[in-house]
Write a structure and sequence with these properties.
By secondary structure, the protein is α/β, with parallel strands linked by helices. It has helices at about 20-35, 50-55, 70, 75-90, 100-115, 220-230, 240-245, 275-280, 310-325; strands at about 5-10, 40-45, 60-65, 95, 115-125, 130-135, 140-145, 155, 170-175, 205-210, 235, 265-270, 285-290, 305. It has two domains: about 5-175, Rossmann fold, CATH 3.40.50; about 200-325, TPP-binding domain (Rossmann fold, 3-Layer(aba) Sandwich). About 30% of the residues lie in helices and about 25% in strands. A hairpin with a 2-residue loop joins strand 5 and strand 6 (about 130-135).
Length: about 325
């Protein structure tokens, strides 16, 4: 019986990236259900901080220290080491978060090993023939369940489909010697850019106030920003607002943007098209304001207010400020 591997991404501060805490939680639960050992893998110039974090989620974490991860892209460096490990060991499945780096790593490991990849998993169960991976397709209109013809493969786990939850006990960390028998061409990092703005990425925000086509223009996002600031949240947007140049792409939520899971999602002037819905449908509470009583978002919002977003937004701001005053 093979193991289940979780390849974890180090965050900007050297600790564990949030997407990896979610993937680790999902795979740990899958390990219990399938009776398989779950092993975490951390590749970094200094893997100790991320490995210590991952050990609070998984019973065993293997670390590989490679100085190249500082000056080269993490996905290429880590993929070489993961492929080398796969040459000597045979886990039943390898999991990684479906972020930009995770997707790159999955593709590179697949090319090096011949293993298939199932992408953007929203749920995973175990069957006699291996992992059964649920995926959202056609803009969220359908859910499919797929497996590997050979029984083994790589799975990328979609962000925000699992709530990260540490294990009851802390696992152990073991160092492995770096193996460079399957090196990839060096992809040098020439610059790193940190965007000024919210203290936390929009994917990690507990409250999101989002604006759509209904805000009417860049100035219309003023009320969106004020509400977000008052609620201690982040500003989001639909693709229509981003394509119109009213707000940066980094705030886009939906099929071609970010996947979010806040406790509160306040949608202003958003119709709720399926492409946007797939990016925020797992939010804890969805409150929508729209002048169109027949807007699609009314079908899945927990509270739907028919009215002018600027009038409703101003009244809400007044109440919130009165409560905090």
């Amino acid at each position: 019986m093979g193991a289940l591997w979780v390849v974890a991404e180090p965050g900007p501060d050297g600790g564990l990236a949030r997407i990896s805490t979610e993937a680790a939680t999902l795979v740990r639960e899958l390990g219990v259900a399938s009776g398989r050992e779950v092993v975490g893998i951390v590749v970094a110039a200094d893997p100790a901080p991320a490995a210590a974090d991952l050990a609070s989620y998984l019973p065993l974490v293997l670390t590989i220290a490679d100085p190249a991860a500082t000056s080269q892209t993490w996905s290429a460096v880590a993929a070489g080491h993961v492929a080398a490990l796969l040459a000597s060991e045979a886990p039943d499945a390898v999991f990684v978060g479906a972020g930009a780096d995770g997707r790159d790593l999955a593709g590179a490991v697949s090319a090096l090993t011949g293993l298939g990849v199932l992408v953007n998993a929203t749920a995973v169960t175990w069957t006699e023939s291996g992992p059964a991976v649920e995926m959202s397709v056609f803009g969220g209109r359908l859910l499919t369940t797929s497996g590997f013809t050979g029984g083994r493969g790589i799975v990328t786990v979609r962000p925000n489909v699992t709530t990260a939850s540490p294990a009851g006990t802390v696992g152990r960390v073991e160092a492995r010697t770096a193996d460079t028998t399957t090196p990839l061409p060096a992809v040098r990092v020439v610059d790193r850019v940190s965007e000024a703005g919210a203290a936390a990425p929009i994917e990690e925000a507990r409250v999101i106030v989002a604006g759509g086509r209904g805000v009417g223009g860049a100035e219309g996002f003023g009320i969106v920003q004020q509400l977000a600031d008052t609620l201690g949240g982040a500003v989001g947007a639909t693709r229509a607002a981003v394509d119109s140049g009213w707000i940066a792409y980094s705030q886009q939520i939906g099929q071609t943007g970010k996947i979010v899971k806040p406790e509160l999602y306040l949608a202003l002037g958003i119709s709720g098209a399926i492409q946007h819905k797939v990016g925020m449908r797992t939010s804890g509470a969805i409150v929508a304001v729209n002048r169109d009583a027949d807007a699609p978002i009314a079908e899945f919002a927990d509270l739907f207010v028919v009215g002018d977003l600027f009038e409703v937004g101003a009244a809400l701001l007044e109440r919130l400020r009165a409560r905090s005053g």
